[in-house]
Design a protein that fits this description.
The complex is a heterodimer. By secondary structure, chain A is α+β, with helices and mostly antiparallel strands. In chain A, 40% of the residues lie in helices and 15% in strands. In chain B, strands 4-3-1-2-5 form a five-stranded antiparallel beta sheet, with helices on one face. Chain B contains two helices and five strands. By secondary structure, chain B is of the alpha+beta class. The chains are: A alpha+beta, B alpha+beta.
Chain lengths: 350, 112
């Protein structure tokens, strides 16, 4: 089996081929040309079936990595484009690979071609700012700092964080949730869920095998902590002199009301995070197959911009019911998962 | 009683993808050095909207009066705001957050 990036002239030829004989390939090629012009990429898979050569064309990422060079101006200098070899700069290459792994999860598992579902170019900037302790999504690109070297190292080091940032793009296109309070905490949680799934999919891990940690490996050895967050056990990721104790609640009873952090979006995300892990654990196996599918369906069903935990829980129950049936292990798991963190599907408290 | 020349300013950074809370506080008797910096900041301006995982800054002047406070996305922390925040971080002390009572294995304190 050969994987390669298809040049535009070849895409055009495939698009013009006989659609009766090559329906999938011509459709995919036309779609790619239409959406991505003038720069196009697709993945061509060649295999031999008996005595015939089978060509399959599938979506492929179009990545562009820039180096901000320690400044706070975006995007910086473009240093690696799709299909170019490794640059030798570890942050550049981690971002490139992480964007690819994230594209693969969305494309291969959920059938979504990039963050907008229409092949949008994936852009990232690395080496942003001086000793900058953060990674963020600015509405158009992912941006990664190198860390201060004392608490944080470089932010590209964690695949779950790269998946987290890219998922902010998916949420922006799919739902456009308000980044404050419960809808903001759901935005954060959805980024953690799919960030974790990117990592699990790349490693082939089951729910049971997975760490469910977000940002593992970002802290320096000086910090007493494993990661930024624990989805399975919110509030236990770190306990440190400089950072204090991981403040995430794991249950609606402990919801934090605050003006800080856009209304506690990175704190209260612990509640829906744990609900997802409870669902994934109950169903077992690979979390992206059923729990992830349900969450993806819910995210892409026109949620109200200010949806709260109960509203999102209802969307996941509807998604489970629509895909797996009203009497199904999946719907039972979803109900039990939300119940486990104090959220009832009907909108009230449990 | 705080004497008139005393300056107390606290800055707190929350949010970011890590969602950690970091604070720095400065106390000084050199109000002449600090007051022009504080006065240059646009305290009454409406802060702009920000993107996902950006830092949120809270800047509080406790003394001298009048007490002032602003909550800003990091995209708004430039110009005089940036100067004020950087100087508090440079000259002030970190505000240590609460943690569980447990022996520390940290070898040396980190700065930041």
């Amino acid at each position: 089996m050969v994987r390669s990036i298809v040049p535009p002239y070849l895409l055009a030829r495939i698009a013009d081929a006989d659609p009766e004989r090559f329906p999938a390939a011509t459709a995919a090629a036309r779609r790619t040309i239409r959406l991505d012009a003038p720069r196009t990429s697709a993945r061509l898979t060649l295999s031999v079936d008996g005595d015939s050569l089978v060509a399959e064309l599938s979506d492929a990422p179009d990545r562009e990595i820039a180096d901000a060079g320690g400044r706070e101006q975006l995007p910086g200098r473009i240093v690696r484009r799709e299909g170019q070899p490794a640059s030798g700069d570890v942050a550049v290459d981690e971002a490139y690979d992480g964007l690819g792994a994230t594209f693969d999860l969305y494309s291969e598992v959920f059938g979504r071609n990039s963050i907008d579902g229409a092949g949008l170019q994936l852009r990232a900037s690395v080496h942003y700012g001086r000793l900058y302790d953060n990674a963020f999504w600015d509405g158009e690109r992912m941006v990664f700092g190198d860390g201060d070297g004392e608490v944080f190292g470089r932010f590209t080091r964690s695949l779950s964080v790269i998946g987290h940032e890219l998922t902010h793009g998916v949420t922006q296109f799919a739902s456009g949730l308000v980044y404050h309070g419960q809808s903001g905490a759901l935005t954060e949680s959805v980024s953690d869920v799919f960030g974790a799934l990117v990592e699990q999919y790349a490693r082939g891990q089951t729910s049971e095998q997975a760490s469910w940690l977000i940002g593992e490996g970002l802290f320096t050895a000086e910090v007493e902590g494993d990661a930024l967050r624990s989805m399975r056990h919110p509030g236990t990721a770190y306990d440190d002199d400089v950072l204090g104790r991981d403040p995430q609640p794991a249950h609606l009873d402990d919801y934090i009301h605050t003006d800080e952090d856009d209304g506690g979006v990175h704190l209260n995300s612990g509640i829906p995070n744990r609900a997802f892990v409870l669902v994934a654990d109950a169903l077992g196996g690979h979390a992206w197959e059923r729990a992830g599918r349900i969450w993806y369906d819910a995210l892409t069903t026109r949620l109200p911009a200010d949806v709260d935990f109960a509203g999102f829980a209802l969307a996941t129950a509807r998604a489970a019911s629509a895909r797996y049936g009203e009497v199904s292990a999946e719907l039972d798991a979803v109900r039990a998962g939300w119940h486990g963190v104090g959220v009832t599907i009907d909108g009230g408290r449990s | 009683m705080a004497d008139e020349a005393e300056v107390r300013i606290q800055v707190t950074r929350t949010g970011g993808v890590a969602g950690t809370r970091r604070g720095w506080s400065v106390e000084s008797r050199e109000s002449g050095r600090w007051e022009p910096l504080v006065a240059a900041c646009p305290w009454d301006d409406e802060p702009p909207a920000s993107g996902a995982d950006r830092f949120v800054w809270r800047i509080e002047v406790i003394a001298p009066p009048p007490a002032r406070a602003a909550s800003l996305p990091e995209t708004a922390v430039h110009g005089p705001w940036r100067e004020l925040v950087e100087r508090v971080r440079e000259e002030g002390e970190p505000v240590r957050p609460a943690r569980s009572v447990r022996p520390s294995r940290r070898r040396r304190p980190a700065h930041g």
